[in-house]
Amino acid sequence: MTVAHPDEPFDMQQADPSPRRGRRRHRTRRVTRMTAAVLVLAAAGAGTAVVLAPDSSGKTGGAAANGLPPATAEVLRQTLKDTRSADARLGFGTERTATGRLPGTLTRLPAPGEEITRGKALYAVDDQPVVVLYGSLPAYRVLAKGSEGTDVRNLEENLAALGYTGFTPDEEYTDATARAVRRWQRDLGLRRTGTVEPGRVVFTAGAIRVAGLDAEPGDQTGPGRDVLSYTGTAQAVTAELDTADRRLAEQGGPVEVTLPDGAVVRGTITEVSSVSEPAEGEKKAGTKIKVVVGLTDARARAAVRGYDEAGVHVIFTADTRENVLTVPVSALLALAEGGFGVEVVKGSTSAYVPVTTGLFAEGRVEISGSGISQGAKVGMPK
Predict the structure, then answer these.
(1) Among 87-91, 242-246, 366-370, the least confident range
(2) What distance lies between CA 36 and its chain's CA centroid?
(3) Sheet holding 226-232: strands in order across?
(4) What's the pLDDT tens digit per position in 206-246?
(5) What end-to-end distance do the CA atoms of the chain give, in Å?
(6) Shortest CA distance to 372 belongs to which of 343, 347, 349?
(7) pLDDT digits over 3-54, tens only?
(8) Contacts of residue 34, Cβ cutoff 8 Å, sequence gap at least 6
(9) Is residue 171 within 8 Å of residue 148, measured between CB atoms?
(10) Angle formed at CA 328 by CA 327 and CA 329, multiple of 5 degrees
């Protein structure tokens, strides 16, 4: 059998079909040099490459009587995807908690599933509304004339969106802002102070849906008391991944979601966070990657409309290689000189050919190198 040196291109036309003795001596020398090689695959679960070791006769373990490998596989040209699947839940995304700030008695609470939009009451304390406004910064202080900052802009933009005018939305709380606030307070049935106390508004990213209640009408509330939980109004898929699969969860990345009826829709990763899981029974404490998938296109939203809470299946794709040459991972050989190779078989001859590896996925590996072409046969273990 002819053996190509890893630094020289392999040419099947130059393969020497001369007597087996010479071939075996050449082969034994080559394989012996490979016995010190060690391969560590970076792709978890991708498979194991073969490190050949000679037996007492100098032949490679598992080789056929004619010196060729016991099996072969074809070099394929294909699209290779690094994917993982996970069970998930169709719901409305991440739940958040509305915590009381105003002391008093809860006199009105919404029903679970109710949707609350800008300017509407989320609940009432002492028969006065706590109002939902849209903004990125939580309400944390008294807003009054002279206040400056992002929360002032949030307030003014909401007042303008609700139809209150006479000021320019910016980060300065002016006399004009105070006049608009007094008009807003009058319409809500509040005292017309021109200032907004902490706890009177709840800033959310947009319209919300009440997920559950943490209190009942008649309960006392105040700073730090959980009142209710809420989510966004758009349906979303929530999945958990092991920390080893963190690479799969990239913000904005595409995924495929299989619904209970078998329909497959596309989604986009909108939130990624780490979640600590406490120890439970024999289960040790650990960390999971929580992933929220938004259903952004009209077809996906229509497909899930009939489901409230349901189990679904998500396929995450970390990487894709199109139109590449691949072989089974177990066809890889670790070379003593470093790097990897494959044993290319043609007729009654074979040769070791160095290769450059790329993506490991689906039990196969992307390879390239001189002497590697689509349809070629490579050696495989039994």
Answers:
(1) 242-246
(2) 38
(3) 96-99, 226-232, 208-213, 115-116
(4) 999 999 999 999 999 999 999 999 999 999 999 999 998 88
(5) 19
(6) 343
(7) 444 444 444 444 333 333 333 333 333 332 233 233 334 344 444 444 443 3
(8) 51, 52, 53, 333, 334, 335, 336
(9) yes
(10) 110
CB 62, CB 53: distance < 8 Å: no
To 10 degrees, the CA torsion angle through 99, 101, 107, 109?
A: -20
Determine what percent of the chain falls in helix, strand and coil, rounding each to the nearest 5: 15, 40, 45
Residue 24 phi, psi dihedral angles, 5° rounding? -65, -40
Which of 125, 128, 80 minimizes the C-alpha distance to 363? Answer: 80
**DSSP helix/strand/coil, 160:** helix
Q: Which long-range contacts (CB under 8 A, 24 or more apart) does 102-105 make?
A: 102/126, 102/130, 102/197, 102/198, 102/199, 102/200, 102/221, 102/222, 103/220, 103/221, 103/222, 103/223, 104/220, 104/221, 104/222, 105/218, 105/219, 105/220, 105/221
Q: How far apart are CA 354 and CA 20, in angstroms?
A: 23
Do 122 and 110 touch, CB atoms closer than 8 A? Answer: yes
- Amino acid present at 228: L
The neighbour count for residue 53, using CB atoms within 10 Å, is 13
User: Tell me, what's the pLDDT at 318?
Assistant: 85
- Rounded Cα distance between 372 and 184, Å, is 74
User: What whole-number distance in Å separates Cα of residue 108 and Cα of residue 126?
Assistant: 9
Whether 330 and 382 have beta carbons less than 8 Å apart is answered as no
Mean pLDDT, to the nearest integer, of 110-119?
A: 97
Q: Extract the tokens encoding 20.
A: 């087996």
Q: Number of C-alpha atoms within 13 angstroms, CB side, residue 367?
A: 30
Token pair 């056929």 is found at 64
**Confidence band (pLDDT; 50, 70, 90) for 58?**
very low
Residue 354 CA to residue 341 CA, distance in Å, equals: 4
